[in-house]
Amino acid sequence: MSPRSAAIIVAACLLHGCSEDSTPAGKSAAVPAAVATAAAPGLDDGNRVFEHWCLPCHAAGPGHPGTNRLAERLGTENSVLLDRENLNEAYVQTVVRNGFQMMPPFRPTEISDRELEALATFVVSGGGRRTAQGAKL
Ligand code: HEC
Asked: With 70 as the cut, is the pLDDT of residue 108 above it?
């Protein structure tokens, strides 16, 4: 089974509920397009959200308030978000929703819950360079 059809089946299960009997592999072709587009968000979505909302403050190099402040408070080795190996998804989601000290919060109208999940995965994986558990890819 291709990763895409697996994702479609997972999405269908999330939307309609699933038992082993109700989703024989052959049925995936009948999943409507609307369900297919609801497949779990991936690294590309996380990348898009990160570039739009986070990169202006968290890119490497001078002139980025997030990077500067983290360098001051936690040291340069912890200043560039995508180079961090000590963040987890729950923490990233909490910081983004609530803000943290000098960082502003982001509302669901700006970053939806789905986008936030993809964003957290993207950040924790270092932009797709590591697994969520920190192993190098
Ligand atoms: C307006 C600038 C700004 C934007 C935009 C911004 N941040 Fe931040 N962020 C900061 C600052 C400043 C800090 C450091 C807060 C402090 O220590 O005072 C920070 C801290 C963080 C931390 C905490 C790191 C730690 O070690 O505790 C995370 C995680 C984070 N940002 C993620 C994000 C993500 C993901 C986005 C995109 C949705 C984002 N930030 C957008 C400015 C920003």
From this structure: yes
